[in-house]
Amino acid sequence: MIRAEPEPDIVVGNLGIFQPLDFFETDDAIWDRHWQVNVMAGVRLARAYLPKMAAKCVGASSSSVRNPPSIFLSR
After folding, report:
1. 3-state secondary structure of 37
2. Distance between CA atoms of 64 and 57, rounded to whole angstroms?
3. Dihedrals φ, ψ of 39, to 5°?
4. pLDDT tens, 37-69?
5. How far apart are the C-alpha atoms of 48 and 36, rounded to whole Å?
6. Residue 10 has pLDDT above 60, yes or no
7. pLDDT confidence of 17, banded at 50, 70, 90?
8. CB burial class (10 A; 0-12, 13-18, 19+) of residue 49?
9. Are the C-beta atoms of residues 20 and 34 closer than 8 Å to each other?
10. How far apart are CA 1 and CA 42, in angstroms?
């Protein structure tokens, strides 16, 4: 993906896998595959894309950043 689209305007990291397996019968290779896909794929995308996107000042937020709901202000 990084070679195909080196400078995207937006990245949505929604890749994930799931296998309903018994915990005690799941070997390390399966755990490692899930870790690589579900966690490390996002880490690698962030490493590849965030520096370029930050340099362009690309970001997203809601108005709550400037005006937090009162629930966050009360104790």
Report:
1. helix
2. 19
3. -115, -55
4. 999 999 998 899 988 887 876 555 555 555 655
5. 16
6. yes
7. very high
8. buried
9. no
10. 12
- The encoded tokens of residue 53 equal 């996107």
Structure tokens at 68: 């937090």
Per-residue tokens: 47: 């490493």
Residue 68 one-letter amino acid: P
Among the listed residues 8, 15, 21, 2, the one whose alpha carbon sits nearest the alpha carbon of residue 52: 8
Sequence length of the chain is 75
Q: Give the helix ranges, DSSP H, for the chain.
A: 28-35, 41-55, 70-73
Question: What does the mean pLDDT of the chain come to?
Answer: 81
25 has a pLDDT exceeding 80: yes
Joined together, the tokens standing for residue 15 give 């890749």
